[in-house]
Design goal:
Layout lengths: L2 E4 L9 E7 L6 E2 L4 E6 L4 E5 L4 E6 L6 E3 L3 E6 L6 H18 L9 E2 L13 E2 L2 H9 L10 H10 L17 H6 L28 H16 L2 E9 L1 H13 L6 H15 L5 E3 L4 E3 L5 E3 L1 E3 L2 E3 L2 E2 L7 H16 L5 H4 L4 E5 L18 E15 L2 E15 L5 H16 L1 H5 L5
Parallel strand pairs: 14-18, 18-19
Antiparallel strand pairs: 1-8, 2-4, 2-7, 3-6, 4-5, 6-8, 9-10, 11-20, 12-13, 14-17, 15-16, 19-20
Helix pairs in contact: 7-8, 7-10
């Protein structure tokens, strides 16, 4: 019997994947462990290897298309094997499962949808949910127009020309909401006056990437479930600037200000373990190990690779690791082990000249540190006004885990270490 290959769950937050590239075509022989496809998850593009020996008989998802986890990816079997009846049965099971799981929303006019061939039941069900109707119709639907069957039906009823729309679904697919939100003239080529001034209302919409969907979901959950409060502090960076300049003159690995921040955070967490904690619903977990997530901006959003056991590493080790992670993130080559297991997170926008900001906690962490730019401003030292280099940091805390005094003590330790980097570095910490 042929083997059905399904879309794998390649990360803990993955709900669907995009088939980026097939390395095999129908009719090619495949072996166990051989690379057959590349799949984009919510965080990276990952290689997918075959679990079976045989011939690739069918490809269920075209390159560039998105599909939910467990949907049919391909069929592998013996050369010339008849797999179509088996494939049809598996597709029918998937439709039944999705219909059962779909929420039923009251509709003024019930929609009747017939089951796919072979029939799932003797009688066609009466469905009151447009989403369910769309699922059932999609089994034999025509996707050449990049529009869902339900969207096509509504567009026909309203007299809307699909060519005038830009879809908000995966890869520009037109869905129901695009028809409902459409306003005549929205996608007319904008008229311009001399000098390039736009005189016609217009806009452009793009589909949401897997990464952006996950970012939206996780940060919404964090913001609306964890009661955030914020602590802001100014730090005199003069000593760090001198120390960094001296180190980089003799050290083969160039150290950034962010590397000093990571090292100081790790040392401060060792002294204040309550900040290195997580809220788990019915208990609080205090982590004995210190794994610091470093927020890295990429084209589609944000990734957070993790520097593990950061308190045990030198500045050079931290610098090397962070640079390697940043490059892997931009190349979409991060693996699950690279972004899992953080106990604290740092988000640094100083390189973009942002003076001060607040960050949303990266669950399950209890805190996240937002780091701003180093600004040269007048400061009072020894009773006189002098030019000084000041960096603002803001600690976002989950009040279920960390109280104000605990967060304040952590920040004071962090400040003391950065303002006295000789204490931070010590023997053999460069």
């Amino acid at each position: 019997m042929a083997e059905i290959v399904r879309m794998p769950k390649m990360s803990d937050t993955m709900t669907e994947g995009v088939l980026v590239k097939w390395h095999k075509k129908v009719g090619d022989k495949v072996k166990i462990g051989e690379l057959i496809a590349e799949i984009e998850t919510d965080k990276a593009t990952m290689e997918f290897e075959s679990y079976f020996d045989g011939v690739l008989l069918n490809i269920g998802i075209a390159e560039g298309k998105a599909a939910p986890v467990d949907s049919i990816l391909a069929v592998i079997g013996k050369e010339g094997e008849d797999y179509k009846a088996q494939l049809a049965a598996e597709e029918a099971k998937s439709v039944v499962h999705e219909v059962i799981a779909a929420p039923i929303v009251a509709s003024p006019v019930p929609v009747v949808a017939k089951a796919a061939t072979p029939p799932i039941a003797n009688a066609a069900p009466v469905i009151s949910s447009p989403r369910v109707a769309e699922i059932l119709t999609n089994v034999n639907g025509d996707d050449r127009l990049k529009a869902s069957p339900l969207a096509k039906k509504i567009a026909q009823e309203k007299g809307v020309d699909l060519a005038m729309l830009k879809g908000s679904g995966d890869h520009g697919r037109i869905v129901k909401r695009d028809i409902e939100w459409f306003k005549p003239g929205s996608f007319v080529q904008p008229a311009t006056l001399a000098g390039g001034a736009i005189t016609t209302e217009s806009f452009e919409e793009i589909g949401i990437s897997q990464m952006r969907k996950t970012i939206a979901k996780r940060l919404s959950e964090s913001m609306f479930t964890a009661p955030h409060f914020y602590l802001t502090m100014d730090i005199d960076m003069d000593a760090v600037m001198h120390a960094r300049e001296s180190i980089n003159q003799i050290n083969p690995v160039k150290i950034s200000f962010n590397d000093f921040v990571v090292k100081a955070v790790a040392s401060s967490l060792r002294q204040h373990p309550a900040v290195n904690s997580s809220w788990l619903g019915d208990r609080i977990r205090t982590n004995h190990h210190i794994n610091i997530g470093i927020a890295v901006a990429v084209e589609d959003g944000l990734l957070v690779p993790v520097v593990r056991f950061a308190d045990t590493k030198t500045l050079s080790q931290i610098a090397t690791e962070v640079k390697a992670y940043a490059q892997k993130a931009k190349d979409k080559k991060l693996q699950p082990q690279d972004w899992e297991g953080n106990t604290f997170t740092i988000s640094n926008l100083g390189m973009f000249n942002i003076e001060e900001f607040t960050a949303i906690i990266n669950t399950p962490d209890a805190c996240i540190l937002a780091v701003g730019a180093i600004k040269q401003i007048p400061v009072v030292k020894n009773g006189t006004v002098q030019p000084g280099n000041v960096m603002k940091v803001t600690l976002s805390c989950d009040h279920r885990v960390v109280d104000g005094v605990v967060g304040a003590k952590f920040l004071n330790t962090f400040k003391a270490l950065l303002e006295n980097p000789i204490v931070l570095l010590g023997q053999g910490n460069i």
